[in-house]
Amino acid sequence: MKKAALALIITIILAVVCVTALAACVNIQEEGDGIYSNQGVKYKVDGQFATVIGAVEGATYCKILPRLQDDALGINAEVTIIAENAFAGAKIDQVEFDAGFERLTIYPNAFAGSTVSNLEDFPYTNVTLTDNALAGMHDLRELSVRGDSRERGCYYVDEERDYGLYGVGENGEVTLYLVPAARSAGEDYTITADIVAPGAFSGNKSIKNVYVGANVKRICAGAFAGVKISAVTINQGRTAEIFVEDNAFEVDKDMRFYVPAKDEAELDQWIKLNDGEQFETLSGLIHPAGCTNSGAHIHGLSGEDAPATSLQGLPYAVTDASHYKVEIAGVTYTLQYLFTTFSAQ
Ligand SMILES: [Zn+2]
Question: If you measure from the C-alpha of residue 283 to the centroid of ligand 1, how many angstroms do you get, rounded to a whole number?
Answer without folding.
Answer: 11
